[in-house]
Design goal:
Blueprint: H1 11-25, H2 39-42, H3 64-80, H4 107-117, E1 134-138, E2 153-161, H5 165-173, E3 177-185, H6 190-200, E4 204-207, E5 212-215, E6 222-223, E7 248-251, E8 266-277, E9 291-302, H7 308-311, E10 320-327, E11 332-340, E12 351-361, E13 364-366, E14 369-371, E15 378-384
Antiparallel strand pairs: 1-12, 2-11, 2-15, 3-4, 3-12, 4-5, 6-7, 7-10, 8-9, 10-11, 13-14
């Protein structure tokens, strides 16, 4: 609801705009629990800053000081998100010579804030951080690798943790991402070439508030469209309950390499020569041959080609899987990396190394107000590919 131009801003009009600003910049759900049934629709809002007063009583004077708080939060929000809009300049309004802290605010001033802030609430724009206002950091994965041969399955697990569920919310709501890339090197077995083809073409997996995406990928896999707010407390892979796949986040493509066997388009060439003396064998109705010679030429063309699909059809099912679940009542996220070779039981040598990182939204400050979702999450390796389930 927009206020009438020329009139003073009322508490009702102010409260409506303040609620929207708080919904994004502050937190309207501070008592949120990870088990709330409506968390996907509501917990995605809130960056965790101090809320504005958004329940002013009738008769409260809406002053320039209150508007300044709105303007500052709006400008920080515009800078943080990807919305291509200019910031507000808090200038002296027409027909007024001063704008002291206690100067009453007109409806058109409030309407301008509403116009600027409303797009941030559309299509979850508040969860999309401008690339210039976020920084990527690698986590310390020392020892998180496998360099001994395996031939059955490989499992790796790691986790990110915050102080509480709300801190995790603010990270994801502000555009934070948890990332994973894998690399395989140094092997020479058939199993290595199969799995390295899968792993090294996968690129980087990025989990945000509502999905997992790929970047820098050669071959696309399948995202389940699940993010932070879709996680449960189970992987759903059979290790922590029924095999429901409730925590399955991503499945890679299968083996894509081709194989050429034999030579395609080869040819051969032959030459023959013979010579006789004397009469030799001859029918009665012919004259005997005293001597002679003969020669001939011949050639052939052939080859064989075996395609990747005929030679590797059973290997199309070799796929990497990423699972996730929340831990500590939503204050953390734990991932499982799963490579299953039980069907083929091929020996896999070489080294597999995860690169784990996160995208951290930068702190932005104007005046006394800040967008700030620090501290960054802590990282821990839970299963380093050398446990009893890795062989």
């Amino acid at each position: 609801m927009s206020g009438t131009i020329g009139g003073l801003a009322t508490n009702e009009e102010y409260n409506l705009v303040a609620v929207d600003v708080n919904k994004v910049f502050g937190d309207k759900y501070p008592t949120a629990a990870v088990t709330d049934s409506n968390r996907v629709n509501t917990h995605k809002f809130g960056w965790g800053a101090v809320n504005l007063d958004d329940a002013l009583a009738d008769g409260t004077l809406i002053t320039a000081e209150r508007l300044q708080g709105m303007v500052t939060r709006t400008n920080i929000s515009l800078n943080h998100t990807e919305i291509p809009d200019s910031v507000l300049v808090f200038a002296v309004p027409t027909n007024r010579t001063t704008i002291a802290a206690n100067t009453p605010i007109r409806a058109e001033d409030l309407n301008l804030v509403r116009t600027k802030f409303s797009p941030i609430l559309v299509n979850n724009e508040h969860t999309k951080v401008d690339a210039q206002n976020a920084s990527a950091f690698n986590s310390d994965t020392t020892g998180y690798e496998r360099s001994t041969t395996w031939n059955n399955k490989l499992v790796g697990e790691h986790k990110f943790e915050w102080a509480d569920y709300n801190k995790a919310r603010y990270f994801f709501n502000g555009g934070g991402q948890l990332r994973l890339a894998l690399n395989m090197t140094g092997g020479s077995t058939a199993g290595y070439f199969n799995w390295s083809d899968v792993i090294n073409e996968m690129g980087v997996l990025n989990m945000n508030w509502d999905t997992v995406t790929q970047s820098a990928a050669i071959t696309s896999g399948t995202s389940e469209g699940k993010g932070f707010y879709d996680l449960t407390d189970k992987y759903g892979d059979g290790s922590d309950g029924p095999t429901t796949n409730e925590g399955l986040l991503f499945t890679s493509s299968g083996v894509t390499i081709g194989r050429k066997v034999g030579t395609y388009g080869s040819y051969s060439y032959g030459y023959g020569y013979g010579y006789i003396t004397g009469q030799g064998y001859h029918p009665a109705w012919t004259d005997p041959m005293q001597s002679g010679y003969g020669y001939g030429y011949g050639y052939g063309y052939g080859g064989i080609y075996v395609s990747s699909y005929s030679a590797y059809s059973t290997y199309q099912q070799l796929k990497f899987k990423l699972y996730g679940k929340y831990i500590n009542n939503g204050a953390g996220v734990q991932f499982k990396i799963f490579l299953d070779d039980t069907t083929h039981n091929n020996f896999v040598d070489g080294t597999i190394t995860p690169t784990v990182s996160y995208l951290m939204p930068d702190t932005l400050t104007i005046g006394t107000h800040s967008f700030d979702v620090t501290p960054a999450p802590t990282f821990t390796v839970v299963n380093d590919f050398t446990g009893p389930d890795d062989y």
